[in-house]
Amino acid sequence: xxxxxxxxxxxxxxxxxxxxxxxxxxxxxxxxxxxxxxxxxxxxxxxxxxxxxxxxxxxxxxxxxxxxxxxxxxxxxxxxxxxxxxxxxxxxxxxxxxxxxxxxxxxxxxxxxxxxxxxxxxxxxxxxxxxxxxxxxxxxxxxxxxxxxxxxxxxxxxxxxxxxxxxxxxxxxxxxxxxxxxxxxxxxxxxxxxxxxxxxxxxxxxxxxxxxxxxxxxxxxxxxxxxxxxxxxxxxxxxxxxxxxxxxxxxxxxxxxxxxxxxxxxxxxxxxxxxxxxxxxxxxxxxxxxxxxxxxxxxxxxxxxxxxxxxxxxxxxxxxxxxxxxxxxxxxxxxxxxxxxxxxxxxxxxxx
Length: 352
Description:
The chain is an alpha/beta fold. The chain folds into two domains: 230 residues, Rossmann fold (3-Layer(aba) Sandwich); 62 residues, Orthogonal Bundle (Arc Repressor Mutant, subunit A), CATH 1.10.10.10. It is 30% helix and 19% strand. The strands form three sheets. It has a nine-stranded mixed β-sheet, with helices on both faces. It has a two-stranded antiparallel ribbon with strand order 1-2. It is globular. It starts with a helix and ends in a 29-residue tail after the last strand.
């Protein structure tokens, strides 16, 4: 179509840009907290009940507000104000937790740039509360909005896309309109057979919504953190632990911090497969490995064949796979008839 009609349609349509005209953002401006949370990202800190989700979320908040590394390792790129609402915790408990984290991080508690919303109730499905939240975000101009937990912030059916999607859309609008990151704390079901994000309670929209997601899960006495991003590679599972000092509230730290100046290694399909086997209580079929490692069937098959040939895993008569015993004298012969050597074929650790 040409002529005046098409010109009028163009004038009334959406504005557009050529690719070369789009913003070019350097790497250091892509992160709110380096490799953990994206700049202006929406997402979820998720996990089973009582695994420390709120503590981890507050650690991120202190990092952004005070310009100190989250978990004493992940540096914030652009510190600034934080706005938070803790629906389940009384004010005195929020204060104690933030104080303990600030002390562990070497930040000054008295000057933390965190604004705590001081109301007993905030509902994201209530038009009046939405309006008040928008006004508060506009006034505070936070770099991060932390809302904890999602289940206490609405009265809708989390399993219904039609109910939960408007809430997530509203929070995405907050992110775009005010150029801030948004973090929701949310519960996950107890499940060892799926990717962490797929275990989040409610609609799959919750997993799909996040730009940056952190998941906590416990394995015996270990707490593992999984890092997932939409536009960047995730990180390999990181082992963290709760510590208490001088009667303070507990806070997290890396269990075995990496050397200074290094970042946790990114995930690879091989490492995910090895972790799935390491965490399994019994040998796994190729299908079970594919589901737990969230890896394509063809890729899983190729990696399993390679690991068997290297003597790092074994395949039993039923076609199930398991790691070789850690002690060489207990290990079965490798495919080439030689015995595997743990020093030569180490299983990658689950921490960073």
